[in-house]
Design goal:
- The chain has a 10-stranded mixed sheet with strand order 23-22-26-20-19-16-1-21-25-24, covered by helices on one side. An 8-stranded parallel beta barrel has the order 2-5-8-9-10-11-12-13, surrounded by 5 helices.
- A hairpin with a 2-residue loop joins strand 14 and strand 15.
- Helices cover 23% and strands 28% of the residues.
- The chain contains 10 helices and 26 strands.
- Helix 7 runs parallel beside helix 9 and helix 9 packs parallel to helix 10.
Length: 498
């Protein structure tokens, strides 16, 4: 298949916010415990109880922001249970995720230490569903107040004299469902009340985030924006990619056929429609675009791996998931006017994880490698890329064959990322470079591809799916030519010749 495109290198379309490459870590399965936190006495190498190998891997992809403690867990989490001497911390049952006992050894101090080690910003989700206004207000005070106050003194007594800096604070999570089964009218009023007491202390300015809709609940977006839009800085959107239409049988992470491959990618592409329609509603109440849209839960959701706790949501990660990640990033870039942050669900061992662990072992998933390949777009200027997407048909279903995005970084380097969705064929892409003296530039690339639709990495074979140098590209006659492998994600770098 031969496709044509035009890249207008002199037409900037705004900044691609680095927080689009954010992550989400919930007290769910083995995400926190074993995946991130092993404790100071663990034989697994750690710094203050946090796995060194996981921190190193996440720093490599420049993780910009990390959401915690949930998720559904957030609206049953009481933060005071997770401070003070670990032996004295209150134990609880994690009723949402597997019914296991939560010992609260990973709490506020441990999370803030994790963010320090990662060099990322914390995004904390407060408890509206089962918590009080006072509880949320005191958490913000505990975190950020610099001076004499009950919560600042309690923080100091627990070993943290200076306040932390916290920008992002969510007022509830999925309050239409696990966070309280609320109506939007009721939540909007609760949000107005709770956010009043999420105060700014000193020069720490809180970015207040409202619970937005699930998938295509446009009524929720309408009501909450209308009634509470002026009290928020951002509002959330959740959308998961399920191959099947049934939550009881979502589809398998591996061992699936070509139809499941095609269906999964088609459902992922729905993210574009959802953001477009929700943004249109936001435009009615916020025409200047002040309020951001945060897609703080996205990714694939399959049936759990056989033999694992159903409540732990542990699934394998294949080249299909890599394409899902690339497609979502391309869509988020396109909607950079509204989309200010996104958080993949979840960072380690849960759903579309970038890292899987098994005791002391750790592997990087194909999704991780896409984060690594796309990190060049963080805070870069979006460029106008008009691409003939072609057609990828299977039976009576049709989706684009190729999608892409392009940006220019602060040094003037141009990066183009292209996803070939076809499981069976290469795509020969020719892009006319406008506004660029192409003869003075050079191109190099990296690609991630699989040899079958469910190609994935295992603990025995951790390098089945890894990025490789991409040499099937060149610049000639003011045009960029690239022969994209089947089912691949490719990033090309255009730089001036030395």
């Amino acid at each position: 298949m031969s496709l044509q495109g035009i890249l207008n290198t002199d037409l900037g379309k705004g900044t691609i916010h680095r927080h689009i490459y954010g992550h989400f870590s919930e007290h769910l399965g083995r995400c926190i415990y074993e995946g991130i936190w092993v404790g100071e006495d663990s034989p697994i190498p750690n710094t203050k109880g946090i796995r060194n190998d996981v921190v190193k891997a996440l720093k490599q992809i420049r993780i910009p922001v990390l959401r915690w403690p949930g998720g559904c867990f957030a609206d049953e989490y009481h933060w005071k249970d997770g401070i003070g001497p670990k032996a004295e911390r209150k134990r609880m049952v994690n009723t949402h995720w597997g019914g296991v006992v939560e010992n609260n050894h990973f709490g506020t101090h441990e999370f803030m230490e994790l963010c320090r080690q990662l060099g990322c910003e914390p995004y904390i989700n407060g408890n509206v569903g089962s918590g009080t206004v006072q509880e949320m207000s005191e958490w913000v005070e505990y975190l950020t107040f610099d001076g004499v106050s009950p919560m600042a003194e309690l923080r100091a007594a627990n070993g943290q004299e200076a306040p932390w800096r916290v920008t992002y604070f969510g007022v509830g999570n999925e309050n239409w469902g696990c966070g309280g089964n609320m109506r939007p009218e009721y939540y909007a009023d609760l949000y107005r009340r709770y956010q009043t007491y999420v105060r700014n202390y000193g020069d720490n300015k809180i970015h207040r985030i409202a619970c937005g809709p699930n998938v295509d609940d446009y009524h929720w977006m309408e009501v909450v924006m209308r009634e509470a839009g002026r009290f928020m800085d951002s509002i959330t959107l959740h959308y998961y990619t399920l191959p099947n239409d049934s939550w009881a049988d979502k589809g398998e992470a591996t061992g699936f056929d070509e139809k499941a491959w095609h269906t999964t990618l088609k459902k992922t592409l729905r993210m574009d429609e959802l953001i477009t329609r929700h943004s249109a509603i936001m435009d009615q109440y916020d025409p200047e675009g002040r309020v951001g849209l945060i897609v703080d839960e996205w990714g694939t959701w399959y049936n759990v791996e056989p033999g694992t706790n159903p409540g732990f949501l542990y699934q394998q990660n294949s080249i299909r998931d890599a394409l899902v990640a690339g497609l979502n990033f391309n869509i988020f870039h396109k909607h950079n006017r509204r989309v200010r942050m996104a958080n993949i669900a979840q960072t380690v061992n849960v759903l579309q994880a970038v890292i899987l662990t098994e005791g002391e072992k750790m592997i990087l998933t194909p999704t991780y490698h896409v984060f690594d390949m796309y990190k060049v777009h963080q805070d870069a200027e979006l460029l106008e890329l008009a691409l003939d997407a072609g057609s990828y048909k299977l039976d009576d279903s049709e989706i684009p064959a190729v999608t892409g995005t392009a940006s220019r970084d602060a040094e003037g380097i141009i990066h183009i990322s292209l996803c070939n969705l076809q499981h069976h064929a290469e795509a020969d892409v020719t892009i006319d470079l406008r506004g660029l003296a192409a003869e003075q530039w050079q191109v190099e690339g990296v690609t991630l591809a699989g040899d079958r639709v469910d190609a994935h990495n295992t603990f025995d074979q951790p390098n089945n799916v890894v990025p490789k140098a991409f040499e099937a590209c060149n610049l000639e006659g003011g045009k960029l030519h690239a022969a994209l492998p089947a089912m691949s994600v490719t990033t090309l770098k255009l730089a001036p010749k030395a």
